[in-house]
Design brief:
By secondary structure, the chain is α+β, with helices and mostly antiparallel strands. It has three domains: 113 residues, DNA Polymerase III, subunit A, domain 2 (DNA Polymerase III, Chain A, domain 2, Roll); 115 residues, DNA Polymerase III, subunit A, domain 2 (DNA Polymerase III, Chain A, domain 2), CATH 3.10.150.10; 44 residues, no CATH class. The chain is 16% helix and 41% strand. It has five helices and 22 strands. The strands form six sheets. It has a five-stranded antiparallel beta sheet. The protein has a five-stranded antiparallel beta sheet with strand order 14-11-12-13-20. Strands 4-3-2-6 form a four-stranded antiparallel beta sheet. Strand 16 and strand 17 form a beta hairpin. Helix 1 runs antiparallel to helix 2 and helix 3 packs across helix 5. The longest helix is centred in the first third of the chain and has 12 residues.
Length: 300
Amino acid sequence: MKLVCTQENLKRAIGYAERVTGRQSSLPILGNFLLETESGRLKLSATNLEIGVVARVGAKVEREGSLTVPAKILSQFVVNLPETEVVTLEEKDQALSVSCAGYRVKIKGLPASEFPIMPQKKAGVATELPAEALKRALSRLLPCVATQETRLELTGVNFLFEKERVRLAATDSFRLSEEILPFSAPLEAEVLEAFSAGGSLILPSTTLLEVSRAIGVQQKMIRMTLEENQIFSNSMALRYSPPYSWEVSGLSADYASGILIFCGAQSGRISTGAPHCKRFFFWRSCYRTRIRFGRRFRSR
C-alpha cells in the first residue's frame, strides 16, 4: 500500500475514529486503526466491539493494500505535522512508513486479517432527521442518561417513532428529559412499521455522543438506517454501527401520559399536558417539595 493525502484530512479522520478505539488488554488489536485503500481513497476503520467508525479520506493511491497500526502512535505523529503539507503512507513488511516535509516515522503493524469484521450496510429501511436539531436535542438528553450499568436500558436514549415525528427521551430514574423532532415528510408505512416494530428503540449514549460530535456545521440532514439489530448513521463520511439495542423495559413507552413520583410519604402525578417540543422533568425525594417545569411549589 502506498498513497498520498493531505495532513488536514488525515488528521480529521483520525480524530473521529480515535475516540472509539478499544483499550481492552485481552484484545490489543482493538487499539489499532485498520487502513485500507478503496476506490481511490483511504479507508480508516476503528471499533471497540460496541461502536464502529469508518472514515474515508481522499487520496492519490499508487499501490493497493491494507494494514493495522496502533492508533495512539499514528495520531500523535500526524497531529504534530505541518498542516499545509501532504503525507505519504507506505506499507512494507508489516510496517507503515509515514513521511511529511522532512519528518518520517516507521510504525510496526499487524495484518489486516486480525482486525474484527466491520458490519456492512446492505438493504435496510432508512429515515432522515434534521442534523442541527438532532445535535441540539442530544446535548440536552445525554446529561440525563444513567451512568451506572445496573440497568442497561437507562444508559441509552429511547427513540419512539411516529408518522410525522420522533420522540427522544432519556432518564436516570431521578430525572427525565424529552425532545420531539419533526420529520420533513411523513414516514412511509413500511419505514414506520420497521422502526416501531418493537414499540421503540434504545440506542447507547456512547454511540449517540459520537454521532453528535461528527455532525458538521453545514450539514442539513443525517440519515439513519435500521438493519436487523444495528443502526447505521452516515455523517460526514462516517458510519456508526452499534451492534446492539435494547427493547424498552425500564422506560415505559407511555411515559408521556404522566410520571408517578414519590416525595417522602406523599405521592403524586405530574401531568405533561399538551405535547411540547421541549420538556424537562426533575424530581427528588425531599419532604413534600416538588419541582415541575422549573417552578417550585409545596404540597399542603
